[in-house]
Amino acid sequence: MLYAAKCYWPGISPMEFSANVAPRLAEQQPDGRSRTAYLGSLVFAGDELVLCLYEGPSPSGVMDATERARIPRERVMEAVWLPVAHQATVGGSLRWWRRRQVPDTRQTAPPDKPTTGDRS
Q1: Residue 75 is part of a domain; what is its CATH number?
Q2: Does 14 score more than 90 pLDDT?
C-alpha cells in the first residue's frame, strides 16, 4: 500500500529538507523486521507542509518509521497513485518509479568530432 505522512513543518525549505531530513529518512529503508520503504517527499514550503511517501503493509509501519526519523508527523493517510495513462503501476503504488530508467538526453558527438563546448 502507498501512504503519505502529513507533516506540518513551519520554516522548512526544500534545501534544508534535502540536506538534513532526507538522509535520515533514507536510513529508514526496510531491514529484516520492517517492510516499510520511504519513497520520497513533496515539500510545500509556502504552506509549511511536507508529504513523505511510503510503501508498506500498514500505517503503523509508517508511524514507526517517521518516529525513528524524528519528523513531525501529524497523521498517516492511505494514498493511491494515479499516473498518466502511459505509465504502468502495480497495485496502485509507485513501484514503476523505482524501475524507471531516465534516458540520457545529452547529445554526444562521435569520438573524432569535438562537442559544441570542446575547444581542444
Answers
A1: 3.30.70.3090
A2: yes
Q: Domain for residue 110, yes or no?
A: no
> What global pTM score does this model have?
0.67
Give the residue from 9, 93, 80 showing the smallest Cα distance to 43. Answer: 9
DSSP at 9 = -
Summarize pLDDT for 25-62 with one digit per residue, the tens: 887 665 556 688 899 999 999 999 999 999 999 999 99
What the block records as the C-alpha cell of 1 is 500500500
Q: How many domains does the chain have?
A: 1
Residue 79 lies in domain: 2-99
Q: Is 6 within a domain?
A: yes
